[in-house]
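LOG
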Amino acid sequence: MAPARLRGGNPTLTVEAAPAYEFVVVIASLFEERDTMEVGSEWFADVETRAGPELLARLRALSQGESDPWFHLIGLVYASPAPRDIRSFLAHLRKTDAHEVTLTLLGYYERGYRRSTEPDVMRRAIDGDRDAQRELHRTYFPEWAEWHTFLGSVFERGPEATKAELIAVLEAWEASVWREEEPQLMPILERDAEAKRGLAAELPLERFTEVATNGVEYLPRSGVREVVLTPTFVNRPWVSTTEYRDADILTYPVADESVTAETDAPPLRLVRLSKALGDERRLRILRILGSGDKTLMELAELFEVPKTTMHHHMIALRSAGLVTLTSGTKRYRLRRDALPDVGELLRLYLGADDPVAVAAPARSTRRKRRPT
């Protein structure tokens, strides 16, 4: 598909709903905070039943239960040829050097990962250099014990075996899970991507990404040639950013209207807003943000609650589109331009004035299992 040309010229923007992106994101979601994700526990239970305990154990062993290696793998999806379906992605992986695959899993192309150590140290470490491995353990997020367990497993396995096991588990995942998921997920993703392409032609990059991601502020890093936005259904409401060479890839949650069809269920946006605003503490959070930006820790201290508790409140407010998470500083900001007229949404749903003119209510297209 032709990339959208942004106002100002560079970088180019591509909005792409390719199967291999969501294929990888679905695996990554297994190792995320499930109680924060909108697909719900029943969806995970169904997927895990189809995958089976042996495949789940192999997936966990490969990443040591961490989601980051799977999100890093999105870079190799981007590097694979169009149409980036599962066949072309797996064919690209088979042709890719094992060292390149392993470095990608380790975050070699991610600024946040590379700034803590020298790139050459990472290369020597996966080649078996014991001194480099010790150096990587010392400098590469030393406080993140789970990540170092993952590093140790990669060093022990080696690049060739890591690549072989990765391809094997992806093939098994495609056969046991993805073949059933793809026909349900791809129409949702394609609808959303089409809508976002139209929006991209109207807005500058910074404003477009904030709208598309439902409130995440994004600024391209120096040297970026292309910004790719790819929608996800399974990982809603989360946004993840993957860096690969001279491209930034943002995986963003599909909009509510992309997953809806005609029934008598309330619009998802109305449900989100009602849940977000139906809590006294969240209303107080919005009031405080109205006077200035705050970090998660600052909000937790103001309300004298654990950081994890405040995190859940901010997830609800982000999902409802009421706050923005700024780039770099990680500060929350009230989205004044997105403050909704909840009464109007409710009026339209109830059809108080003109039932014929009421916008189509919403439901999920996924087996009627998605929670609100």
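LOG (cont.) second protein
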Amino acid sequence: MRRTDYARVGPWETFKRLCRLLAPSPPRVPPDLSGWDWETFVHQASVHLVTPALAMPLDRWATAPAEVRQYFIAFHDLNDKRNKTALGAVSEMLAGLREIGVEAIALKGVASLIAGLYDDPADRFMGDVDILVRPAQISKAAARLRELGYTWTNSEEPAHRWVVPPQRGPTHHLEMQRHLRTGVGVELHHGLFAAEFDEVLPAADVFDGAAKVEWNGQNIFIPSPTHRLVHNIAHDQLHHSRYSRGLIQLRQLRELALILSRHGGTIAWPEVEERFDRVGQAPVLRRQAAQCFALMGLRMPIEQTSPEEAESLLRARMTENLSRHAVRRAVTRKLGRFYLDSFAAQPALALNLLNPAWWPQRIRHVRDYLRYQRLDN
């Protein structure tokens, strides 16, 4: 694949093209694909977790390089199999929880797929499965998952089994439990965000407003469209600190646009504004609304900042983010020293690197460590 002139087609223009392809109303006329920086395009799709969603848009245009189209189609097909496995596990899991009287609500990507938000379920990439249960039932739910073949790492296990980089642990869900046969990971939530943002959307409100959906022969509960929209914005912009960094994740912005496209007329907009306003986070909602209009072409019927201003800020922050390689290298060296010191003190720990069963949990801890260290720097 030939790399094009970077000055002529830079990262920001590539990102804008990515947004146009993923908007709920994509271009009907095939775009001019000449001069596209395909290496940057593939990289940004991966960073923003939207690779599978680009398979069909690109496959419609023969002018896209064949190897590019084949790459996205292959990723889409693999994600299709992965999602089917995950949804099969969700079906069994929710049925198992219902058998013992545990109320459960599917969240985030799983809720979107159950609700039929995506025309093609394989478009949505999911890291793991998120299930909300009432706080008083979370221990009972975790025990039921263990009966269904899930296992987890917790503080009761011997310290020599695991090296955990120092980090800020989650306060709103249990450690991920992973199914031994399928590898599907699930997080049981008793809240939707870290404690500091819990008042934006308390779990009790989600249960009170939950919508019943008939899916796979069961009655499944998911958050109402209003709560799904609030959760999407607050989780991406507040819980993951992207508002303070002036950034977005395109997977989440696209899902926000799809919720708006499908359910905009039924969303309780005064409630949406009130939820952010009462915790002093109205600017978060206003900027996200402006970004949704600027990048996805959909306007929310609420007060918002200037789309041009929101786009300009995002462009500046994304450009700045691309130049942070020195910080990333320093943080990676710091993590490396942590592991080397741990292995020197207790050499048996190094054996865990050879055990694939530990890799998902290790990758998760390392990812969180790197993310928080970058914020601290």
